C-alpha cells in the first residue's frame, strides 16, 4: 500500500512559478510510472506529465516547455515544477503511482492550483 500526499499548491500570478511535491509513504522505486494529473471545474481529469522508473518523461502538449516532472527515489518524492503558468493551468492537481504487474494504482487527495490573471 502506498499513500500519496501532495503539497505546494496555492495562488500564483500568471507568468509565475510553483513547485508541487508528492510524498509517498512507501517506496516509489517499485512503481512503473509516477504521474501528475489535473482536473479543472467541469472538465475531465487529464494527464499533465509522467515519469517512468527508468526516468523517461512524457508531457501534455499544453505544458511542454513550461513544466518539468522529476523524481527523487531516495526521498520517495515526485515533483512538478511549473513555470510560466497560465490562467488555464488552474485546477486540482493529483499525484498518481502506477504499477503494471501486479496491478496497483494509487492517487493522492489533490492540491489546488489557482492562477490569477
Overview of the structural elements:
- With 117 residues, the protein is mainly β.
- 0% of the residues lie in helices and 54% in strands.
- It is built from no helices and 11 strands.
- Strands 2, 4, 5, 6, 9, 10 and 11 form a 7-stranded mixed beta sheet that branches. Strands 1-3-8-7 form a 4-stranded antiparallel beta sheet, with no helix packed on it.
- It is globular, with a radius of gyration of 13 Å.
Q: Runs with pLDDT <50, length 5+?
A: none
**Beta-strand share of residues:** over 45%
Q: What is the average per-residue confidence, as pLDDT, rounded to a whole number?
A: 95
Any idea what the radius of gyration is?
13 Å
How many β strands by DSSP?
A: 11
Please provide the ordered H/E string of secondary-structure elements: EEEEEEEEEEE
Helix content: under 10%
Described by the principal axes of the CA atoms, the overall outline is globular
Biggest pleated-sheet summary: 7 strands, mixed
Distance between the termini: 40 Å
- SS class: mainly beta
Number of H/I helices: 0
